[in-house]
Hints:
Elements: H1 24-36, H2 44-52, H3 62-74, H4 81-93, H5 97-108, H6 117-129, H7 133-145, H8 153-166, H9 169-178, H10 188-206
Amino acid sequence: MLGHLRRSSQRLPVANLAVYSIQSSHIEFIAGWCRNHSTRNFSVDTSNKVSNDRGYQSRELKPSLVKVIKWMLSKGQGKTIRTYEQLVCALEKDNRADEACRIWELKIAHDLQSVPWRFCHLMLGIYYRNNRLDTLVKLFKNLEACGRKPPSKDIVRKVEDTYEMLGLVEEKKELLEKYKELFDKPSSNDRKKGRQFKKAEKNTKTG
């Protein structure tokens, strides 16, 4: 099961490279690795740029991070599911969804039982945003066939919207009936909004 990918960051032979979310701490890991392994393709100047530019979302930085991750993978370093997840996410943000989908299909999709739901959710979102609705449905059904149950209603809602856009009314009804218990629980977005509301209310009272 995804034996070629090491899921624990502590098993990596280089600077604890467990790349997942787009955060400054992960950019620092990549930048540090790049500084320690600089070549004519990835100089110290390039790694400093990755480290110092906190606006990872900028168009100028995203291609640099994609190049660094690809170069590391080509050297056999950082081959974890999280690294590929970071790469897929960065590619889509750089308007390279086709390439992101190819990497998923070639490196990850062959063993869906071992892929974290957050990565599956990311791919469902990529298919949704790029109008690959049939592929989204296929992925979701493959996950179900592996015995994977969606952990949140956010995922079910995305599939529900997809069924509606495809005109699959019966499939939509069956989906909602099958996972109706999820709608009785607050999603991660609901919890986040709740925390933000409580914080704002507290600030109002103290102010």
